[in-house]
Amino acid sequence: MLNPALARHDPATASRLMLTLLALALLWPGLKLSELDLGVLFDGSNADTMGTFVSAFWPPEHSGEFLGLLWHATLETLAIATAGMALALGVALPCALLATRAMSLSALSRGGRPAWWAQALRWPVRGLLIVLRSIPEIVWALLFVRAVGLGPTAGVLAIAITYAGMLGKVYAEIFESVDPLPARALLGTGASRLQAFLYGVLPQATGEMLSYSVYRWECAIRASVVMGFVGAGGLGQQMDLSMRMFAGGEVASMLLTFLALVLLADLLSRMLRWRFA
Amino acid sequence: MSTLKAPPRPDCAAEPEPMVKLAGVGHTHAGGQVALRGIDLQIARGERVAIIGPSGAGKTTLLRLLATSLKPDQGELELLGKQPWTLAATARQRLRTRIGLIHQAPPLPPRQRVVTAVLAGRLGQWSLFKSLFSLIFPLERQGAVDALGRLDLADKLYMRCDQLSGGQLQRVGIARVLYQAPDLILADEPVSAMDPVLASHTLGVLGREAQRRNATLLASLHAVELALEHFPRIIGVRDGCVLFDKPATAIGHDELTALYANEQLEHAPSSPAAPPPQLNIPRC
């Protein structure tokens, strides 16, 4: 026998097999409980209804008047997403700095483990981030439409709140995932925590933060469209109107606009990553 | 003759407070492995000391204790006349601005530019606004150029740290500490990635810098010849204890042999399937 290690069984086999079986066993009740039945798609009358709706998509509407409307709605959607993200960033960055373990001074002399009281102080911020992101933006949008009336303001506020929670959590995790030694070395030369963050953590985290933020901005564009259906302005509101009037051509034009917006976000993300990652 | 000017008095070489004072300092790693035990040490201002000893002897742990990046489990530690672990956190951060540690593998963000990495040495003395501004438009570039110039790296000012070789990166780490201009310079294997000529030259630069500013320099080194050549005082560390602490001129061949003696390596060739290493029994 050449290698005695080969003669033994792979010690991981049993646990991996169990995990596979467990995953399959959990999947089945999921399909049952969600009452997924692909058959309804091909049911006669359903297929006809969908068929007529989709066939009205061609040709996409391209009259000058409608394009003007579309242009305006697109700008409004972009504005909602961007303003919402900007507000969210304002909340997320300080929260992430408070919640992350990466900037712990007490961890410096303890081999990277913060003291228990320092950990306890981070929990309220983590809790706040959880509350912010656990309520879907559509619920916030419904709430704000009642509070501030129909229009983009409700969409901006809804995105700001939910996305602050998501961005804060992910930023905090990104800060913890980079090499902690540069920041610790700076803390060791008497730098403040914010300075150590700027010179030790940020240079390593920029690429990932940018790419995630642009991805979230793309999500915000889509979310602002969904929220338009409940009256929060933008392309979604326009699409809601077109769908009610069964104007398939207009819906098609708007879907093409989405496609262009998502492509744009993707290009932007790739450009930023190429520059910063 | 004017009596207003006092005649220049000879500088008092003996400062009352030693720069570094350790009394019975010990440290145990989180895994339960004893790294240092019962270290007594006094180092005065302006002294240049080399720490030598075999791998795993506790040299790095000793330097990290002095850099206040580790807290000793036993004993008393006094740096620059203060006990760092009895100070409040802000006062300790102020004390840390006067201590510079040169790391064996300088922890620099790969994408950071050399100029920023060097200027970061003075963050402890800068305001937050200044450091924020300098992150975008480097301020005090001349200081960085001077520090790098003394290590023949001035042409790398705008390079990114990941574009440098290991030896160049080590010199950037040294330039950062030169720019920080601390009272206590600690160096953990500062020249391990350099060729012998460059290593000797770099240690010379460090030594002259310490002498010029009357700073205390403490460096751990693997190369004994370099230690004997550049440092007046040598501390030999083995198994977490100080084996000897003498002027470089008084170090004999026997002491070095005892310091680096390795029973396991001597037996190694005779039996390939060596038994697991035994617990280290302190020899002091």
From TrEMBL, chain A:
Bilayer-spanning residue ranges: 78-100, 138-163, 247-268
Signal peptide: none
Domain ABC transmembrane type-1: 74-269
Keywords, alphabetical: Cell membrane, Membrane, Transmembrane, Transmembrane helix, Transport
CDD domains for the chain: TM_PBP2
Family matches, as InterPro entries: MetI-like, MetI-like_sf
Keyword Transferase: no
Topology class, membrane: Multi-pass membrane protein
Compartment(s) where it occurs, according to its Swiss-Prot or TrEMBL record: Cell membrane
PANTHER family recorded: ABC TRANSPORT SYSTEM PERMEASE PROTEIN P69, PHOSPHONATES TRANSPORT SYSTEM PERMEASE PROTEIN
Family as reported in the entry's similarity comment: Belongs to the binding-protein-dependent transport system permease family.
Protein name: Phosphate/phosphonate ABC transporter permease
Species whose genome carries this gene: Pseudomonas songnenensis
Lineage, highest ranks first: Bacteria, Pseudomonadati, Pseudomonadota, Gammaproteobacteria, Pseudomonadales
